[in-house]
């Protein structure tokens, strides 16, 4: 196969891959969240959300409210956490993102439910010396979910070989297609 | 001739990727051509088109790579835009505008590429530069999915209004034997005849 045809075929493959990437990026732009689709990794929100559920997030400029389920990052932890907001302090109107204080708890139902767990500060989930979350820790609030579909992602994370196998099979299909 | 060798290998590559991979290995060692699955119209068309390219370039026309170059350039720019969007080294909020610009530019480039392909390229698989004293030609062909009728058209490039075209329309059964080998001699003769018809038409038009 001459160089020109090889380049055209490589670009074709590149365009397919990059179009998937761009769709993801436009989703990030549209929802305002840096990761609009996440997989639940822990069972702390059962029976509302189970391990392997997929959550759809948005961020936007709307204020964070008590009762919303949010996904947030903690310094020093790689994986984000999915819990419910139980307290919000806006000490003055128009407070900046760093000034809004948010407290979360692992409770499956809106507050008023069980008092068994402590909130996340009492549970020492936050970083050392951190009492509250701010808006900039929050990746997004949950606006929808798909049960169990994310189990595939968990399997692929636990056994990376499944990921490589899948990509290998897909690559073979694309390269040997007649178009 | 170098042109001949490179034109044979695309046909061989197309066939080798089908189930005949084992045969291809053997035949390649012997330096013979590989058979093409007679149900695979895409490979059949490709083999015939490659032969046409050979005949036309042997007839003194040089291939014009403009369309191919534009496709490669646009494709590369589009992929680079996506890479910039992915790997831009700034934190989330700062790069919102960059991301938006990349996504919109990607959409625009993809649209431009597709429009270019459908309007300028279409069915054409060969563009040439004008021969001395002659005109540039473009060769397009059709081989519908479940039909054995191969249709080749030679026209001037760019298309002149009211220009007639030279065409060849025959069943592929005239060129492929029962094992799937392309019998080049009759096909080359037909293509050469079509090329001469095209040239004499151009002379009359002038």
Automatic annotation (TrEMBL), chain A:
Domain Peptidase S24/S26A/S26B/S26C, chain residue ranges per copy: 28-87
Compartments in which it is found: Endoplasmic reticulum membrane
Annotated keywords: Hydrolase, Membrane, Protease, Transmembrane, Transmembrane helix
EC number in record: 3.4.21.89
Source taxon at top rank: Eukaryota
Enzyme class at the top of the EC tree: hydrolase
PANTHER family attached to this UniProt entry: SIGNAL PEPTIDASE COMPLEX CATALYTIC SUBUNIT SEC11
Entry function: Catalytic component of the signal peptidase complex (SPC) which catalyzes the cleavage of N-terminal signal sequences from nascent proteins as they are translocated into the lumen of the endoplasmic reticulum. Specifically cleaves N-terminal signal peptides that contain a hydrophobic alpha-helix (h-region) shorter than 18-20 amino acids.
UniProt-recorded name of the protein: Signal peptidase complex catalytic subunit SEC11
Species of the source: Elliptochloris bilobata
Origin organism lineage: Eukaryota, Viridiplantae, Chlorophyta, core chlorophytes, Trebouxiophyceae
TrEMBL record, chain B:
Cellular location(s): Endoplasmic reticulum membrane
GO molecular function, one term: peptidase activity
Membrane topology listed for this record: Multi-pass membrane protein
Principal subcellular localisation of the protein: endoplasmic reticulum
Membrane found in the keyword field: yes
Pfam families in the record: SPC25 (PF06703)
Residues that span the membrane, as ranges: 72-89, 96-117
GO BP field: protein targeting to ER; signal peptide processing
Gene Ontology CC terms: signal peptidase complex
InterPro entries: Spc2/SPCS2
Keywords, alphabetical: Endoplasmic reticulum, Membrane, Transmembrane, Transmembrane helix
Family designation: Belongs to the SPCS2 family.
Function: Component of the signal peptidase complex (SPC) which catalyzes the cleavage of N-terminal signal sequences from nascent proteins as they are translocated into the lumen of the endoplasmic reticulum. Enhances the enzymatic activity of SPC and facilitates the interactions between different components of the translocation site.
Annotated protein name in UniProt: Signal peptidase complex subunit 2
Species of the source: Elliptochloris bilobata
Lineage of producing organism: Eukaryota, Viridiplantae, Chlorophyta, core chlorophytes, Trebouxiophyceae
